[in-house]
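Q: What would this complex look like in 3D?
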Amino acid sequence: MKNFRFLACTLAALAIGGSFTACSDDDDKEVIKGIPQVNDVHYDILVSVGGGAGMGSTASNIIQSLNSLETNTVVDFTNIGADITAVMDAEAMIKGQYYYEAAPLGLARYGKYKVTNTGVETVAERPFGQNTYKDRRYTHDWLNDSEFFVMGSNGNSSEILWTKLKDEGSKLTIMAEGELGLGTNAAYLKILEDNNLTAGTFSTSGLARYRSKDNTIVYAFRNTKDKEGFYVAFIDATTMLIKNVVRDTRAEQMAGTAYGELLQHKMFMDENENLYISCNSQIPGAEKSTCQYGCLLRINNGTYEFDATYEGYKDYTGKIITSDYLGNNKALLYIQDPQHTGCSTDNKVYAGWGSDYNGYYAILDLTTDQKSEIECDGEKLPYSSGTFSQRSFVLNNKAYIGVNPKNAAPCVYVYDIKSGKATKGITIKEGFTFDRIIYISNK
Amino acid sequence: MFIIHSVRIFFCLIVLLPLAVSAQQSVVINGKITDTHGAPLSQVAIAVSATSRGTYSDDKGFYRLEVPQGKHTLVTSFIGYEVQSKQITADKNKTVNFTLKETAVSISSVSVFGKSKVQQLRESVYSIDAIDIKEMANSVTNVRDIINHATGVKVRNEGGLGSDFELSLNGMSGNSVRYFVDGVPMNTMGDNVSLDNFPVNAIDRIEIYKGVVPAELGADALGGVINIITKKENKNFIDASVSAGSFHTYVADFRGQFQLPKSGLIIRPTLGYSYSKNDYKVKDVEVWDEENDKYISTEKKRFHDDYRSLIAQMEFGIERKSWADLLTMSVSYTKTDKELQTGSVQNIVYGAAERQQHAWNVQMRYKKADFLLKNLSANILASHTWDNSLTIDTAYRQYTWDGTWTPTSRNEITGRARQMRRYKRPMTAVRANLNYNLDIHNSLNLNYMFTRTGNNRTDDLGEDEEFVPSNDVLAKHIFGLSYNQLLWNGKVSNVAFLKDYMNYVHVEQNDLYWITNSAYIPETTTKNNLGGGVGTRISFCEPFAVKASYERTVRLPLARELLGNGSTVYPNLALEPEKSHNINAGIFGTVRFNDKHTLYYEGGVFYRKVEDYIHFIISESEGTGQYDNVSNVTMKGVEGEVRYNWSDWLQASVNCSYQDARDKNRYKEDGKPSVTYNNKVPNKPWLFGNADLTLTKHAIFNKEDRVRFNYNYQYVHWFFLTWEGYGMLATKARIPTQNFHSAAITYSWQKERYNFTLECNNLFDCTAYDNYKLQKPGRSFLCKFRVFIH
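A: Here is my prediction, written as structure tokens for the whole assembly.
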């Protein structure tokens, strides 16, 4: 009864508060905590031409910059945009105005690039130091506005390498580099011993995220000999010493193991720096390992272990492909689910996965675990094809959501987070493979 | 559908036409050609003067010619022998024998209008270019470069001697072109034998079949066939040469033939050795400049590109027996060691990785005319090859173009663990060819070719946990049945053929399944495909003839395409056979102004409609790649060549090819329209040509010497690296226009017994690229000394 009274009061207070704030001009300007707020930006659209998209694709990659994604225009790449194919990979670390890459096109260097509609400018380069990385197979994050790190496995994947770099405008410098010592870490070895596991090879890239409040890098990785769970190492970002290693078996693996987050967003932090990791597991009895179901696991800020009390996207079908934080304890997920999208009647069967129109966007309430699909003009956003793509981002209280529908040209929907309304934005001329949208600072 | 219907009608017509020709008035002249000692002379040209009619004597010196009734003059020509002519009245079948005298006068100083074998091939039903290597043997050190001068051919090297290359015929490139030696797949000698290291001295001529390939070759070649015909003189000879050139290049070739006429025993040793450091300079490579803290473009020498090749073969057997015209056994050993300098793009530098290959081969050939039946001839071959390859990639080093390196934690090629990847590819080949002459106008040919290639992969180190040893098998059966027909005194020639292609694949490997597709195909598959074609040639008169040919062809994937090469080529086990409709049509003719001036021309159009086209997809970001079905592509083009001879002292030729390859995939993988539909396929040369001038002067210091000067120019028009039309054109990557000039001068003395050549390639030191912007050598010099004793 007490609970009921409390709930009723809360709802009443929210309703009253809502009625006042709804008429306020300040409401639109009020920032949603935990999502990027950058004013002077343009938007880059990456498409591929003449081949399939995604990691390892050999198609030509074209980037075109637009001032807005919200106009009702058709974007064509004929004779416009930068063909980046011969200069850099499509998968990159993006910050401010620039694209950054380790081992661009397989070259033994780091590179910083500026992409405009007329071409690609190489702004700075730096040869590899003692650590070398495979093109597109590393993870990264930014330590501050000018410093970032990359991490990835060595040749036989027996150890994880790390390198910290500093961006000094026209100069990239290596600040420090080394090995994590993960293969010989006592905490890791103890987990193996306790669980009667052997040490296999590590993930090619794994997933890393910097937690500023306690200066810790949270690094998720796999041991190939462990088919039941995955691991997270907590690393002091200054010393790069491992503070702790934990294992979780609620999912077989995190959503990205080989390519970091160079193209796709696999993890997100809320405004309190609680880290949510998208995870997937093979469906029991599935025809192929591709047939998976997802979940979200959480590592709370300041802690060095998984939050055992939280498991998001529970009891839903479908594999989580990308995830973004929408603020207000909600997440935008791109889910591949043949059953849900009508491409198959059974997700255990391989048919229906692959390049079918089996992907959809949903908003997940991280508190209630309620999932809802986004609608535009009273209809759900169309189901979409494409597994290796990142067609969404969140900026300035809006989510930009790109789709590749079966019966229409690819387009972008703009979802106003506060109003919950989506409107249709730009359309991409049919024939191009729509791979990515991203915002780029103008300054 | 229209094409198929037309083909059926055409096929029926040429099968029925023999009934209509039996009433024609022609007679057969046959005879034997011997030297003054009574020894038979083979390969002697016998021509009917002032006509295009002619033939060659066979291994026993016999010839057979069909001529219209009336008076004719028969003329013989054979290097080192006097020309003879005989007037005959062809009122009935008759025998005309020739006895030729040796002479000091070279045949080239005498006007003989009999067609050479090379010319006969060019004027056949098929679209064929033929290159007489015998004429060039003094100066040629590398067959690959010579073929690159032929019409419609483009060879794209990745570097210097021994580098990987891709040959395209009428726009069909790479492995859709098959290589044969005397009608047998070249890789029976070992996968490491190529146009680069095949001994030049062993070659008589090279036949280039474009698009439509005779069933007798037993080839599943979509783009065409390069068939090397080895030298077979009718008497003992020794042909030896050594050459040395820029970039520490050394080549030595030896070919001999020793016959014991009484016993019929014949021995043919062949030896070829090539070595090059390939330490040529490459331009515009990037090295780090510490002072300025940036990469600078500079010129650096290649430092890890040594290539060494050995080919040794001993062929022995008997000939001219009642039970066998020829029965030979050969044993060959080939070995190639090759350092790897770059990946598929130039700024990926290797400094320690290398590939070693060696192969043993035993081969048996049997030939017999009137085999079991009169007019039935048999040509049978059985061969087994033990082919081994080892790719060594064990250095954890990161090299730069200045040759320095820093230690790393991954290997050079794949960026993974240390590898010593060993491939054993045993190959068994059997070929049986039966030819039955129905009469002098009509013949049937049945050909069967079987090849079985194993692919046993192991790794000596076992450090790469992703690698799983495997033992795969690829077997092919190709049946061919063809019908050949001559009408109207040889003015019309027709051919029709059917082919059946079967392949069997057994695959065990399942590592890297997301790249190799091993998880998506059954362990064992057998596929059957039918093909066939027709062709015709009509000679209205010597200056004007037309020809056309068509083939519905199938190409089964090669072991390398399906199973990779262990280093830079990933397997693709889901690869489908390529299929194509190939059409050629052309005109040709010879115009003789008088005894001294001859103009030969030929022009043609071609069309290829390829389904499931197999193309090497380079992954720039890894320095590796993979063959894939690029689905549907059409190619059409125009090509032409004009050759002019002024007596025997000047020969000039010009050829030009225009090729237009278009993507015909209407839909992308997601089922939606593809924007590149009907676009020009990128990264392919589409306009190129050659000009060649040869001057010969006899009797410089004495009657038995001569000087020969050759100049060659090659042009390749620029082309885009990626799909044109998308993105800002001005800033898209492109392969620039290339101009190559080369010159050679040869001095021969004692009737060409001794020959010395000086050659300069890439005279103006132009920057030369292949498709992926990997630089080829700059200016280079080479000298060659050849002794030919016969």
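A: To summarize the key features: The two ends of chain A are 56 Å apart (CA to CA). Confidence is low (pLDDT under 50) at residues 1-25, 52-58 of chain A.
Q: Very helpful, thank you.
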